[in-house]
Specification:
Number of domains: 2
Number of strands: 12
Largest sheet: 10 strands, mixed
Bound molecules: 1,4-dihydronicotinamide adenine dinucleotide, magnesium ion
CATH topology of the largest domain: Isopropylmalate Dehydrogenase
CATH class of the largest domain: Alpha Beta
Strand order of the largest sheet: 2-1-3-12-11-4-5-10-8-9
Number of helices: 11
Strand content: 15-25%
Radius of gyration: 20 Å
């Protein structure tokens, strides 16, 4: 059988270090991937290309698969987020982020097992901002019935297929009565087609409180784009930080796997980034490819290294480098 093809986007900042780690681990788990490396973001600009090279979406569509490092987006001005453009261009409407407590990680909570499902193509992220006059800006928040329905269906279907009993829709429909109201009403309607899954809704600020007090109170969080983004980082904080949480951007026939974290400019180039999020994103990618055994082996080896605690990156209280941590995971894989 010929190896599966996948695009690798090394990304900016810590991206090349952590995607490189994931590639090494996938290879060590015995899965051969035919990687096509395509730069994007600042890295592509620096070498004279476009932040979103025109060949990138086509290549991901062709392979159906990509592993992606984070891409830096300038704050306030400069180019539009390449992440957002890529998700919209490939219509990767579902952002799936499993947030789980991992063994050995010092954190207030030990048994978090949440799944965040974030609408990935609409809301405020369409980037339609207009200066009305010199002192006034308006931003469009677009919510469609079609977009709300497909992400709601995705969330309920996910819950059903993964043995989850409930879905919680997150919104601010008390204030944004029409836009978040449409998102919520559509989720409620969709819930009727899934009588085996219980449905609740929670106003976003109250949900943040719930998560910090009792993160076990919710299973699958169905979120509009912006709330899903914010809640993802909050939830990562509940399980030990951004270095540990993977994500998948999913559309019809296309999937892009990455960490929840960004390019971490504060630690980029130091060789100390935690590659666990990208390694776990790699495991999600292998599951998507049907390589379940290899994915499980990777997760088991990673868990063992975390629990053992001898080789940890600085964000987890250790002194190991990205390479040393990755090497330890690979060494453990080899002994199984
Ligand atoms: P960030 O996620 O890059 O960093 C936040 C904090 O978490 C920093 O202190 C960083 O050192 C730490 N951190 C993140 N990942 C880590 C890892 N693997 N190991 C150890 N520590 C880690 O968020 P920030 O600083 O707000 O954003 C930096 C850039 O990344 C921005 O340009 C932003 O637009 C971009 N970004 C890109 C994303 C993507 O490509 N999907 C997602 C989030 C942000
Ligand atoms: Mg984010």
């Amino acid at each position: 059988m010929s190896p599966a093809a996948a695009v690798l986007i090394p990304g900016d900042g810590i991206g090349p270090e952590v995607t490189g780690a994931a590639q090494r681990v996938i290879a060590a788990a015995g899965v051969e991937i035919d990687w096509q490396v395509i730069q994007a973001g600042q890295a592509a600009l620096a070498s004279g290309g476009a932040a979103l090279p025109p060949e990138l979406p086509a290549a991901v569509r062709e392979a159906g698969l990509a592993l992606k490092g984070p891409l830096t987006t300038p704050v306030g001005s400069g180019f539009t987020s390449v992440n957002v453009r890529l998700r919209r261009e490939l219509d990767l409407f579902a952002n799936l982020r499993p947030v789980r407590s991992l063994p050995g990680i010092r954190s207030r909570w030990q048994d978090v097992d949440l799944v965040i499902i974030r609408e990935n193509t609409e809301g405020l992220y369409i980037g339609e901002e207009t200066w009305e006059d010199q002192d006034t800006v308006s931003a469009v928040k677009r919510v469609t019935r079609k977009g709300s329905r497909r992400i709601a269906q995705f969330a309920f279907q996910y819950a059903r297929e993964h043995g989850r009993k409930s879905v919680t829709a997150v919104h601010k429909a008390n204030i944004l009565k029409a836009s978040d109201g449409l998102f919520l009403d559509t989720a409620r309607e969709t819930a009727r087609d899934f009588p085996d899954i219980s449905f609740r809704d929670r106003i976003v600020d109250a949900l943040c409180l719930d998560l910090t007090l009792n993160p076990r109170g919710h299973e699958v969080l169905l979120c509009p784009n912006l709330y899903g983004d914010i809640i993802s980082d909050l939830a990562a904080g509940l399980v030990g930080g951004l270095g540990l949480v993977p994500g998948a951007n999913l559309g019809d026939g296309c999937a892009v796997f990455e960490g929840v974290h960004g390019s971490a400019p504060d630690i980029a180039g130091q060789g100390t980034a935690n590659p666990a999020a990208l390694i776990l994103a790699g495991a999600l990618m292998l599951q998507h490819l049907g390589e379940h055994q290899a994915a499980r082996r990777i997760e088991t080896a990673l868990n063992w290294i975390l629990e053992n605690g001898a080789v940890l990156t600085p964000d987890l209280g250790g002194t190991a480098s990205t390479r040393e941590f990755t090497g330890a995971v690979i060494k453990h894989l080899d002994t199984r």
